[in-house]
Amino acid sequence: MSLLSVNGVSVAFANALGTFTVLDKLTFELQPGKVLGLVGESGAGKSMIGRTIAQLLPNRFHVTEGDLRFDGRDMLKTGAAEQRALLGRDIAFIPQEPLAALDPVLTIGQQIREHLDHIGRGAGRRPERDWRKVAIEALDAVHLHDPAGVLDKYPHQLSGGMCQRILIAMAFLSQPKLLIADEPTTALDVSVQARIVGLIGDMQRRHGTAVIFITHDLRLAREICDDVLVLYAGKQVEFGPASEVFERPGHPYTRALQLAIPPAAGEHRGLFTLPDRMPGLMSLKQMGGCRFAPRCPLAEARCHEVPPPDVTVGPGHRALCHKPEATPGIAPPPALEHRHRDPDAQLLFRARDVSRHYITRARLFRKPDTFPAVRSASLDLAEGEFLGIVGESGSGKSTLARLLVGLEGTSGGTMELLGRDVSGMDRGTAAFRRENVQMVFQDPQSALNPRRRVGEIVTQAMEVMNGSRADRATRAAELLQEIGLSPEMAQRYPSQMSGGQKQRVNIARALCTVPRLLIADEIVSGLDVSVQAQLLELLLHLRRERAMSIILISHDLSVVRYLCDRVLVMYRGEVVEQGEVDAVFANPQADYTRKLLAAMPGEGAPAAEKFAAEEAFA
Amino acid sequence: MPSLPLWLSNTRSLIGFTLLIFIVGAALLAPVLAPHDPNEQDLINMLLPPFWVEGSDAAFPLGTDSLGRDILSRLLYGARVAMTVAIFATLGATLLGAFLAHLAGYFGGWVDWLIGRIIDVWLSFPPVVLSLILMVGLGAGLWNVILAIVLVDWTRFCRVLRSEVMVVRRRDYVSAARLLGFSHVRTITREILPATLPLLITLMALEMGIAVVVEAILSFAGMSVGNEVPAWGQMIADARQDVYNAPSTLILPSFAVFVTVFAFNILGDGLRRSLDTRLTQTERA
Ligand SMILES: Nc1ncnc2c1ncn2[C@@H]1O[C@H](COP(=O)(O)OP(=O)(O)O)[C@@H](O)[C@H]1O
Ligand code: SF4
Ligand SMILES: [Mg+2]
């Protein structure tokens, strides 16, 4: 018997404007001990499925039809008290934001104790010493160092990866039958991600827990899931065994998402860019036929009018499409021409033995304690070249970027820009550097001032030059046009834009002064693959139009492989390897590079084995 | 209520603001509203009760004090002193505290260290002791009261704001502004100050309440304005000997202090709530 069976379940949201369907007639099953992946772009309704199963729907959302059974129980008929008891005991949650899920004013120990009380194994029945023992064992099982010490810490004193491990430990405390993990690794970098995923898999096998794994990373889903459900605008567009769905996708959307991801190995190919965005809730009502039709490369007249049927395309494999047989015909665009270093290209930037030490503890009369965030990094960058910098978080990538643009002074080494020494931080140097080098920051949330309008943000550089209002408006329109946003967006505030749009604004601001070198720090991490593909296309477009150089910092190696000519690998503040992308990826020299390549999802051994889980967290 | 500005669309701010309009109105219009000269002594009509008590006189609606001075007129004029101190002391403390807080939080390093140490030394004196020492040193007088409050209370602004500035300073848009050629001054005024302003305004509202109390205490102790200027604290002090036969002479000025402080606090609280939610909306949505 299946652990969870969902039959024709719809969820709607009601407000003054009417009732809107959020999830439309979902039908799937989950067997005990299996892993089901939920994939799709953000906003498709993935988290809503998790909330529906756990009966944790937000206000004004309710199930309008269908049948939902968990462990033989009709979930739509159980009382609130019973549901609360189920949650945390039989159904456990690992939320997307580990820090938000932990209470900032309680120590980890206090929170684990509360949780133990809730699931009925806690201090209420056992002596004080015992809950500590249980907690320490649980933390030990997720390979946390010094579990006893962690119990007395507050969440903000721990890294994201550590918090995520604690939540995993708490989730498995009650030996739940079902675990719902909502993008548990999106905020973490590859090597930590590999360990967390390995850990969930480990615990899942040990306890025979069924898992619903929500992710927008198709490669990850392919690696760890038994079954996969692809969601688009609240519709279940494809469902089936993971191997089937990813080998022989029946729905054009699944195929398009797959082709939007740069391949990590093998043949180079172009990226399939899905146009526009998924339709919002409000506009769904007007769509008569297939919801994917406006973006579908195979769409024809009937797709816009007739709702597509749920077609069986393989054993246990269904797709919601008029012509799933045509899906394999969707071809990726041709590969980019990878250029080799042009020996005649002018040298744009050169850094020699650049380093940066942070003072970790100042001392009177003695040399302070320092921490070397960057050690002796050297690089050459030719005009028009794309250089990738990869490495795990904390390896010094961002610090190096800040040194290169001059946001921070170096502790040693020299830098040259267009033949002129720019190692110093004086006014003239700063102005010269500013004209030629600009930076796009990692987190668009923090990089855009929430109190400025988009038009003001992108032309901020003109504020210092006292550009007139009219000049600025004209320039803003030009820049927005160039990065693919409509000029009306100039009137918006950043909070009124999607993640991908914010990132475009972030890029446009750096382009205002027409720099020759753009340093982009993790600008596509955490975005949907469709948006990522659009942004990568934008960078390529800029290279063609402006003959610009780019230094792209990323922890996603396949992105670097797709876009960059050369790559530089950092580990613990040091450059351990650099060279042409194809050479480094095909034949890595440094041990660390080999490890990094192996940790990519979808490559080689299962995630659990790639990084020994007991390895210390950085 | 679409016509109200956002910071007022909150019951708390609205109550506080309305009360303050009345208090400020009373202070400004005191010469017009007051039925008598606040210092005019009417020795025939001493210790008259307020209108709700038998034996009151319609010419002195809130009664008179032991020298036969009209309490209503003295309360109205007293509001002038209270408001003057509230406004100028708060402005001074804000300017000094916010200036140093932005310097410390923005530049960090030794600037921060130095300002931090000054605050530590300052805070090692209990505020009451410090203000008394200052008042003794400076001598009595309205402007000295203001100066003393500024010198004592700027640390409150500085400490709270400094950590806020440090949070904002770490946002990438501040780095971006520097990269686009913004000078330090422009970065602070255009990128950081707008983000710290809500907190600053809230602190100012609360500080005004504190200033009113401190002025009342100092004028109670006779260290504020001279005898010829009516002040609430002084009225309370004068009423002490008659507290049993004329309790209203004590209760009325105390009530004036209470209402004013309440108005400032509830306004500050309301501002904090509405400005906070506005921030969470724009920064997280
Ligand atoms: N202001 C700072 N003070 C002390 N250490 C820092 C500071 N900024 C960064 N670091 C340290 O420098 C190392 C490199 O950080 P970063 O450049 O941000 O890495 P990445 O971009 O690869 O994630 C990390 O160990 C980090 O803790
Ligand atoms: S039904 Fe038509 S529009 Fe929809 S996915 Fe299939 S081919 Fe594309
Ligand atoms: Mg980084």
- The CATH class of chain B: Mainly Alpha
* Overall pLDDT score of chain B: 87
- Uncertain residue ranges of chain A: 603-618
Number of strands of chain A: 22
Architecture of chain B, CATH level 2? Orthogonal Bundle
SSE arrangement:
The complex is a heterodimer of chains A (618) and B (285).
Chain A: E1 4-15, E2 18-30, E3 35-39, H1 46-53, E4 61-70, E5 73-74, H2 80-86, E6 91-94, H3 98-101, H4 108-118, H5 128-141, H6 147-151, H7 160-173, E7 178-182, H8 190-207, E8 210-214, H9 218-224, E9 227-232, E10 235-241, H10 242-247, H11 252-260, H12 301-305, E11 310-314, E12 317-320, E13 347-361, E14 369-382, E15 386-390, H13 397-405, E16 412-417, E17 420-421, H14 427-436, E18 437-440, H15 444-447, H16 454-458, H17 460-464, H18 469-482, H19 499-511, E19 517-521, H20 529-546, E20 549-553, H21 557-563, E21 566-571, E22 574-580, H22 581-586, H23 591-598, H24 607-610
Parallel strand pairs in A: 3-8, 3-9, 6-7, 7-8, 15-20, 15-21, 18-19, 19-20
Antiparallel strand pairs in A: 1-2, 1-4, 4-5, 9-10, 10-12, 11-12, 13-14, 13-16, 16-17, 21-22
Helix pairs in contact in A: 7-8
Chain B: H1 11-28, H2 30-33, H3 71-107, H4 109-123, H5 127-138, H6 142-169, H7 172-179, H8 184-220, H9 232-239, H10 248-284
Helix pairs in contact in B: 1-3, 1-10, 3-4, 3-6, 3-8, 4-6, 5-6, 6-8, 7-8, 8-9, 8-10, 9-10
The site of magnesium ion has 5 residues of chain A, from helix 13.
What does this structure look like?
- The complex is a heterodimer of chains A (618) and B (285).
- Chain A is α/β, with parallel strands linked by helices and 618 residues long.
- Chain A has a domain at 386-409 and 426-587: Rossmann fold (3-Layer(aba) Sandwich).
- Helices cover 34% and strands 24% of the residues of chain A.
- Chain A is built from 24 helices and 22 strands.
- Chain A has an eight-stranded mixed sheet with strand order 6-7-8-3-9-10-12-11, sandwiched between helices. Chain A has a six-stranded mixed sheet with strand order 18-19-20-15-21-22, sandwiched between helices.
- Mean pLDDT of chain A is 84; it is low at 603-618.
- Chain B has 285 residues and is an all-alpha fold.
- Chain B has one domain: MetI-like fold (Orthogonal Bundle), CATH 1.10.3720.10.
- Chain B is built from ten helices and no strands.
- Residues 278-285 of chain B have low confidence and may be disordered.
- Chain A binds chain B through residues 402, 405-407, 431, 434, 438-439, 441-443, 445-451, 460-461, 463-465, 493-496, 509, 512-513, and chain B through 171-173, 175-183, 186, 190-191, 194-195, 279, 281-285.
